[in-house]
Amino acid sequence: MCTRQFRVASLIGWVLLLSPFWVTAQQAVGDYPAPRYPQLKKNYSAEELLAIARTVVRKPSLGLGPGNYQGRDAANIVNIGYNIQSGEKVLLSVDSSFDPRVRDAMATAIREAGGNLDVVITYADPVGPVRDGAAEARRLLQPRQRQSGAAGFSRSNLMEIAERGNYQLLIFGGGGAIPLNIPYRWELIPWNTLDKFVTGAADYPYELQEAIDQKVWEIMLRAKRVRVTDPAGTDITWTVSRAGYQEAGARKHFGIAIRGHVGLWPNNFLPKAQPPDAEGVIAGTVNHTGVFPHIKVYLQNQKLVKIEGGGAYAEFWQSLLDKYKDVQWPMHPGPGMSWLREAAIGTNPKAVRPVNVMEHALGPTWETRRSGVIHWGIGVLGVTQGEPGREELLKFARESSLPLAHLHVHTYFNTVEMELEDGRKILLIDKGRLTALDDPEIREIATRYGDPDELLQEAWIPAIPGINVAGNYMDDYGRNPGYWIRQEHRNAYGDVMDSYRLH
Prior knowledge:
It is built from 14 helices and 19 strands. Helix 2 (46-58) packs across helix 3 and helix 4 runs parallel beside helix 9 (311-323). The two termini are 42 Å apart. By secondary structure, it is an alpha+beta fold. It has a domain at 206-433. The strands form 4 sheets. The protein has an 8-stranded antiparallel β-sheet with strand order 13-12-11-8-7-17-18-19, covered by helices on one side. Strands 9-10-14-15-16 form a 5-stranded antiparallel β-sheet. The protein has a 4-stranded parallel β-sheet with strand order 4-3-5-6, sandwiched between helices.
C-alpha cells in the first residue's frame, strides 16, 4: 500500500480566534464543537503548490470515459484524479477569474507526468460582490439567457476544439451538466480559489475518501427510518426506501452522485422509489448562491406546504411555487415544484467555506463538501442529456421551457439518527461530526498517509451564536447572517484575505 505522507500538515494548521470580536464568543454553547478555521499563509511557493498538483495528477481518474454513461461518478468534484499518462494529449480550460497560481501548478504537474498539454483561458466578467441567497430562486423566475464568453465562445466551442484536436482528456474549469457520449475523458478542475486548493481537499488520499464514502453508505443501507435534527430548527423524518437505495447502488456505485456527496435522500434514481412519508421542517440561512434571513420550510408527504421567514428568498420561492403549482412534471408524484429531491451529506473533512465568500460572487457551494454538512434540495429533479430513465423528463422540460431545478438550504450541526431493522438506533452524524471519521477501520487507513487525528479533523467549523458560541441565534445571527459571516471571516483570516481574493 502507498505510504506517502499527507502534505496538508505542512501547509496549514488550525487556529482558534483571538481577536476582540471573539472574546465572548469563545465560550462554547452546549456540546457542539467550537469554531475552527484553516490557518492560511499569505504566500505559497511554487513547489508547495506543485506538491499538491502532482498528487491530483497521479490519482485514479473517476470521470466520464469516452462514449459512455458512467453514472457512478458523472459529477465527481471531491476525489478528483487525472491519471495522466505519458504522451496523452490534454486540453485544460479555465476562465480568466481562475487563480493563476492553481492553474500554473496543475499545468506544470501535467507536463511533468508526460501530458501533452494545451491551455485555453476564456473570458469571465470581473468578480463582483456576493450575491445574496434570494438569487437562487429569483433566477428561476426570469427568462433563461444563453451564456457565452466575450466573443461568443461557449462550452460547445471548447468541446468542438477537443474533438477536432483529438484530445484524449478535457479538464474543464466551469460548471453545468457534464456532457455524455463524448470521444474523450472529461474531468473537472474546481479549485478556482487558492484556499480551496491548499486546505486539504485537492490532494486528500484517494483510498481514504473512498473508504469514508463506502462506510457512510453501508450505515445507510442498514436503516429503516431516518431522523435529522439541527439546532437551527431542522427536524424531519422519513422511512427508508429499500428499493430506492438498491437502485441508487446499481446506478451510482453505492449511491454516490458526486464524490464526497452521499445521498441520504437518494435523489439520483427513478423518483417512484423514493420514500413518500418525509415530514417535518428544514431550517437555515445559507444556500448555493449566498445568505438570507433564517427560513423554515415545512414538508408533509415529501412536499413543501409552508414557508416561514427567509426574507426575499422566501418571497421568490413562494412565487415559484405559485407559478408552477399546476404543472405535472413527468416522474414526479404530483403537480408543482415543491418536492423534496435532495439531502446530500458532505464527506470530506477538509472542504471549507471560501475565505472571501462574502467579498465576491462565487457563492458558498464549496462548503457543502465538508463532512457532516447537509444541503437540502426542494423542487424538481435535475437531469443530464442521455441519463438513463430520464429522457422523458428532459424532453418535457425543454419543449415546455420549464426549469429542472431545486432550491437549497445548508445545515451544519446535524444529528442524523438511523433506526435499524432490529430496532437499534445509531448516529450517522452526531452534532455535525460524521461518525464514520471515528470508525477504527477508517482511522487505520488514515495511518497509511499520516496522522489520523489531523487527516480526519474538520478543517472548518462555522461559528453560529446560540449554537456553538455565545449569543442569541436570531438577534446576533439569524436575522442578518451576512453581517455575522462577514465579520467572522475578517476576524478569522485578517489581512490574509487579500491573498485569496479573485480579481
